[in-house]
Design a protein that fits this description.
Blueprint: H1 4-13, E1 37-41, E2 44-47, E3 52-55, H2 70-81, H3 91-103, E4 109-113, H4 116-131, E5 135-139, E6 152-153, E7 163-164, H5 171-174, E8 177-180, H6 185-195, E9 199-204, H7 218-231, E10 234-239, H8 250-255, E11 261-264, E12 275-279, H9 281-284, H10 303-316, H11 321-343, E13 348-352, E14 355-359, H12 368-372, H13 376-388, E15 391-392, E16 401-402, H14 409-427
Parallel strand pairs: 3-15, 5-8, 5-9, 9-10, 10-11
Antiparallel strand pairs: 1-2, 2-3, 4-12, 6-7, 11-12, 13-14, 14-16
Helix pairs in contact: 2-10, 3-10, 6-7, 11-14, 13-14
Length: 428
């Protein structure tokens, strides 16, 4: 039988650069042929060969209630019948903004956009406009979308300014970006001692998901809040991934931190292209048409995307939702940890809420360097072992994975049993 995934990949490469519309989908980090997905339902996706997979990618986080949830689908259908796009205000925009502000108290004002990249780009421009400063601080291993000033890598010294990590990005665009190690309180303090009065904002993934799952220390986030306040810099929590995913109120509710601005995406769109940024009224009021910071978008607040998001936000607030989600995630992490130990494989799993990370290392990483030092080759073997047996993780050792409310205890047990088989093969 012909392999449809192979056929489609070859066909795609002739018209789409690399055969994909987002780089990680090409399986470059793990090798092999990407799976072209035909449909998704609940905790499962099916590829073009008809192979079913227990899915822990979840569209990279949005599918928290499960794929094609019937209530979300019905909300989208009803909205679509009224028209796909208006380029004009709607009542639903107000409703979802009010709902987000109710769930995330740090958000006093909010604006909708279409992607996480758009949200973070706008939040940074706003922070610069509000403070009148140019420099921004980000952390190594954290990803905040593909806007020019954020596509950077660390310099050779602790406080050297960042160099572009993508062709096509002029050095001038990144000269004001400082990259620091994640979870390093000392380098943070040193940075602000040297540049504090020039720093417009600090942006971070409050729980990293783009160097796999990496949790910050309480000392790190509390120092960050204190030092940005002291120097008049804007603290941006990039909760595109963690928002409504690690807890109802996001990572900021777990940390007990009130950021100045928050970016959101993924879950709030329910699988549709929707994101947002919001925060303090005095900062948000600097945006056009009230202020001098320009931001706009033809499809911002798209009515169909808003309908999907509103229904998703309703579902996740139902009694017991996060208790169930967290229980399943912990069941998976603990079970696979145990399976690895039984096989004598050096391995650690960690989780929070509906996010988890697998690391072929003695302990969970604290920063990008820790993650880079893990056994990436072992992850590739593990990834393909699971995939061949019907379990899908993100195709990179540097990506967190995601649980949904549609995953049952039985499905998690099935996943653990498959992992046990893969570990046994790896140990042989």
């Amino acid at each position: 039988m012909a392999n449809r995934n192979e056929q489609l990949f070859e066909r795609a490469k002739k018209i789409i650069p690399g055969g994909v519309n987002s780089p990680v989908r090409a399986f470059g980090s793990v090798g092999g042929v990407p799976r072209f997905i035909r449909k998704a339902q609940g905790a499962f996706v099916w590829d073009e060969n008809g192979q079913r997979y227990i899915d822990y990618v979840g569209s990279w986080g949005p599918a928290i209630v499960g794929h094609a949830h019937p209530e979300v689908i019905e909300a989208v259908r009803e909205a679509a019948l009224g028209g796909l796009s208006f380029g004009a205000p709607t009542e639903a925009e107000i409703v979802i903004a009010e709902e987000i502000a109710k769930i995330v108290p740090s958000v006093e004002r909010l604006r909708l956009v279409s992607s996480g990249t758009e949200a973070t780009m706008s939040a940074i421009r706003l922070a610069r406009g509000y403070t009148g400063r140019d420099k921004i601080v980000k952390f190594e291993g954290c990803y905040h979308g593909h806007s020019d000033s954020l596509l950077v890598k660390a310099g050779s010294g602790l406080l050297t300014f960042a160099n572009p990590s993508s062709a096509g990005v002029p050095a001038d665009f990144t000269q004001h970006t400082i990259v620091l190690p994640y979870n390093d309180v000392g380098s943070l303090k040193t940075c602000f001692e040297q540049f504090g009065e020039q720093i417009a904002c600090v942006i971070l993934e409050p729980i990293a998901g783009n160097m796999n799952l990496v949790k910050p220390s309480q000392e790190f986030v509390h120092t960050l809040r204190q030092i940005t306040t002291q120097h008049g810099s804007v603290l941006i929590y990039d909760e595109v991934m963690t928002g409504f995913r690690v807890a109802l109120g996001g990572a900021q509710s777990v940390h007990g931190i009130t950021p100045d601005l928050t970016t959101m995406g993924k879950v709030i769109g329910g699988g549709m292209p929707l994101a947002a940024f919001g925060g303090k009224k005095e900062i948000m009021d600097c945006i056009s048409p009230l202020g001098a910071v320009y931001q706009a978008g033809t499809l911002s607040g798209n009515p169909v995307a808003v309908a999907a998001g509103l229904k998703t936000l309703e579902i996740i607030q139902r009694t017991g939702f996060y208790e169930h989600l967290t229980a399943r995630t912990e069941q998976l992490a603990n079970g696979i940890n145990q399976a690895a130990k039984q096989a004598g494989i050096t391995f650690t799993a960690d989780s929070i809420g509906g996010m988890f990370g697998f690391y072929f290392a003695e302990q969970a990483p604290q920063n990008y360097s820790d993650m880079a030092a893990s056994n990436i080759a072992a992850f590739k073997t593990f990834f393909h072992g699971l995939l061949e047996r019907g379990v899908a993780l993100g195709p990179s050792a540097y990506e967190a994975s995601f649980m949904s409310a549609a995953h049952t205890a039985e499905l998690v047990d099935e996943t653990i049993a498959i992992a046990r088989t893969v570990f046994a093969d790896m140990a042989a």
